[in-house]
Amino acid sequence: MAQKRRSNGEGSIIQLKSGTWAGQYTYQGKRKAVYGKTQQEARQKLKEVLSFIEQGLDLDSREQSLGDWLDYWLKYYAKPRVKRATYINYETNIRLRVKPDIGGVPLKKLSVRVFQEYLVRLLEESGLSQKSVRNIKNMLHSAMQQAVINDLITKNFIEFVQLPKLRKTEERVLSQEEQDALVFEARHYPHEASFGIILDVYTGLRKGELLGLQWRDFDEDKRTITVRRAINRLHVANEAEGKPKTEILIGSTKSSCSDREIPLFDKLYDELVRYKERQMQLKERAGVAHEDTDFIFTGRNFCHVEPRYFETIFHNVASRAGIGDAHIHTLRHTFATRALESGVDIYVLSKLLGHAQPSTTLNKYGHALPSHKRECMDKLSEIYRSGS
Length: 388
Description:
Largest sheet: 3 strands, antiparallel
Radius of gyration: 30 Å
Mean pLDDT: 84
Number of strands: 8
Strand order of the largest sheet: 1-2-3
Order of helices and strands: EEEHHHHHHHHEEEEEHHHHHH
Structural class: alpha+beta
Distance between the termini: 108 Å
């Protein structure tokens, strides 16, 4: 009597002559089996396979490794939709951080535990900051969510991973005396691009935004500068040699909120105009034609300043000013703090800094507000009326 053909999802357990137990099932019209040393082991494996089939998932994908899936996701999902800087960051983290550790784990064996232990290891052993580890977690979340959509896994286990809350660290802010000394030394430093330090401490631009400024972004009639692009040096993979390298990327700003117009107060505007006149004179002597696309801060051949070289200029100027524990981003923190101390509204400051939400500004720089409680309360005395 012919045996009845089984449909997808049906299965049975039998013991082979060798003593091995086999869990038999039908998939896409073909008989297949999983094996175990014991009946219980074979039953568990069969249960997993039948559950996979019942949910309509691609059974063949169970053998695909996490590393293989991340490579595929990076090429066909991430690269077409994210900025190049973000793509480079994803590629670097996948190649250097994820694949060497858990890249060989099959998709079918992924679990909350796998991701939980991996991310904790990153926190404790890699030397990465909490923010960097959270960025890797967010990247993995996006990749695994797509795996769920593609019916490769049943759930996005990253959603259930728990990491410590981000520790708030108080950013380095220059005192008023340090700021004055830095500006003085920047004005007397023997490189024209040192003016970028002055512009930055009074506008709070990110380093890449500052170096990405072009003269067409400077509106002399409106007395504003407009942030439209950023220059950054990023780590990339050298596909030909298989070695990491870095490259300069001139691209869009961090986010759509980062594109913004910044008004210049009179003294800063006047100084920028004088700087432009000096640069035009230097170009004339060198026989270099001025174009509207020329960068404001330039190096050799009047091309944009290399980010690492600008860092050297900053550290040299800071050293002359007697400041040894600051970095370029300190200028942004100093600008934000001085603005709050001067009574600038949080909403306005968030727009000047290019933050998406005022809450971001408040969370980062709220430490500058308590000292002004007394001043604010004193202002209420003007509207106070005695009950008598």
